[in-house]
Amino acid sequence: MAAATWCYHGDPEPEQPAVLVQFSNGRVRQADSIRFTVYRNKDTAHPRKKHRRILVSETERLSYVGNNFSSEVRKCNSLCRYFVGVLDKDSGQMQVYNAEIFSLQPLLSDNLIPDDTKDYQKKSYREKMDLCIETFGTSKQKRALNSRRMNAVGNDILNTAVTEAAANIIDAKGVTALIQDMVQDDVQNISIFLPPCNEDADKPEDVYKFEDILSPAEYEALRVPAAVFVNITAEEIAKKTEDKSHCSFVLEELKFLPADEKSRDHKARCLWFLDTLIKFSYLKMIKKKHPMGPECPHIISRKLMKNFTSLTYNNGSVQNLISASMKAKITAYVIALALHINNFQTDLTVLQNDVKLKESRMMDIAKAMRLKVSKAKGLPGLENDQNHKLGTLSLPLPAQKASGNQRKRKKMN
Q: Which of 46, 56, 124, 248 has its CA 20 to 30 A from that of 321?
């Protein structure tokens, strides 16, 4: 309230409305002991400012202030008019005057705060608000404050308990043992999506059995669609390579189909299913009943949907999704089938490019399958600008090792 803008308005003027007062924090018991002062704006020429008033009230305990122009003023003041009637008991007549309502709020001045305010000034905004709620808050606000404080205490107790439990585990087992447990858990997580592994096998072909990749019924169903590979010519292979209608691994292997009719048919069926698996891995959400087209046998479509997708709820319906874990499972089966095709040694880099995986992820899957990984040398079809990795399945199987991510974690420790 600036002295240049506001002036004391003590004596009432005839054209000014009567003042009605309402206290926001209760009712007045002794109205005669309260002193009121009205201030008006000096700018009487301004159409709006000339009607602005500030009402100040003083009691023995508190001071109150209110006005008729701030945003806190009730909207009903501008929507209706108020009147005060003064009854003359002698004549029985009543004089009616215009009136204006002021809602007075307690004014907490600085001198009401104790002199020692160092602790108060150090408190955060939230702590200061909590003190206000404790003193002036409603019952609902106080209940919410108590509930929040109880939750904070519960969280502190929980964090302390977790910290102590973690410290006890570290003291009991040691950091090295915990890292080994993490490595083992990581290997087990990947192993869930691998083909069944026979660690006691006497021959490489029995480690990942062909029957666990393709059942006899599924293998028989591949005879018709794989016939296009059995009778394929060099010109057709060149045309398919130009069109990129099949993955690189399949196009390369089609150039080396055996002359023996039975062996040629077997490799053609394996290549057709491997190509279908890789194309299936490109899908995200399966919306069609037969996503691989009508030429794909029903038993193969059912195998793909059942074994290599996970169910999810989307847009009000249950759908089949190829998640990251399912893509890893498809990759593992692709590697196993490629090992059977290539006498248990295959180019992992070509397969990695076909399934569109990062090299680190491909190496994790290969090592989880107990393959020996080495650099490729002098193999046909290799690109000079890329170092290829060979995966070899040989006996005895090597021990499972930590993935690259686990090695990084150990280095950080």
A: 248
